[in-house]
Specification:
Elements lengths: L1 H18 L5 E5 L6 E5 L1 H7 L1 H6 L6 E3 L2 E6 L4 H13 L9 H13 L3 H13 L1 H6 L1 H10 L4 H13 L3 H4 L8 H11 L5 H15 L13 H11 L8 H4 L3
Parallel strand pairs: 1-4
Antiparallel strand pairs: 1-2, 3-4
Helix pairs in contact: 4-5, 5-6, 8-9
């Protein structure tokens, strides 16, 4: 009986979300030129989100014609819509999203103080550990920035300690910045195969060259070689070329 009543309540919320009936709140989300306005209900928001409970204090908001007006530029319209539908319907679909979208949902849910949802999303992400490893550098960056994602953070730390080469072998390896790459090699070079480091450094330099370097090195000109030398110069002292010669 209680489940049926709960479902009926959520159905009612979902209906007024769709129609906009009784809305007393307008929230502008995203940044130009990709902003969206959501017409919502302050009661629903305050019930489900401690963030909105605090945010809707008079000194946080603007009220015009009895409508609460609020801005949230740091959450995209796509992500905000997913979270609003969750608050109004209790439903959340993550399976069809890519991992970066689900991470964006996790970060936004954390900001809106949706703690149970955050735990659920972390558990969902950890089901597909191979996807995390494929995007390891992105996930590592996120867990370093948002230490509150304890489950993800613990998985990344344990995986990295077990195999530091995950950074090099991740699909998103070429996206890492020079400063982080240098720091990574400085701390972990002794545990890495130098031939792999060199191959990955070449791959990274080609990706960072803004299409100046052909992927086929046999096609390189003198100018290409000069560009490559400039890109890898900060790394030269970190590579043990004697070990490479043993392969």
């Amino acid at each position: 009986m209680s489940t049926k009543l709960s479902n009926l309540l959520f159905e009612g919320y979902a209906k007024i979300l769709e129609t906009g009936e009784f809305s007393d709140t307008e929230i502008l989300v995203g940044e130009e030129p990709n902003t969206r306005i959501f017409r919502l209900h302050s009661f629903v928001l305050k019930v489900h989100s401690p963030y909105f409970r605090s945010a809707f204090l008079n000194y946080w908001i603007r009220i015009e014609n009895n409508i609460i007006r609020f801005q949230k530029p740091n959450i995209s319209g796509e992500v905000f819509e997913i979270l609003i539908k969750y608050m109004y319907s209790g439903k959340l679909e993550l399976a069809n999203n890519d991992i970066k979208t689900n991470i964006a949902i996790l970060i936004a849910a954390d900001e809106l103080c949706l703690d149970e949802l955050c735990s659920y999303i972390e558990n969902f992400l950890l089901i597909d550990k191979e996807s995390i490893k494929s995007n390891f550098n992105f996930i590592l960056y996120i867990t370093n920035k948002f230490e509150q994602f304890i489950k993800l953070s613990q998985f990344c730390k344990e995986s990295f300690q077990e195999n530091p080469s995950l950074v090099l072998r991740a699909d998103d390896f070429v996206t890492i910045e020079q400063e982080y790459f240098i720091e990574y090699l400085t701390k972990n070079n002794d545990s890495l195969k130098q031939i792999e480091v060199w191959d990955k450094l070449m791959e990274w330099a080609i990706a960072k060259s803004n299409n100046e370097l052909p992927s086929d090195i046999t096609m390189w000109t003198i100018d290409n070689i000069t560009t490559f030398d400039t890109l890898i110069q900060p790394f030269i002292s970190l590579i043990n070329f004697q070990k490479i010669s043993h392969y």
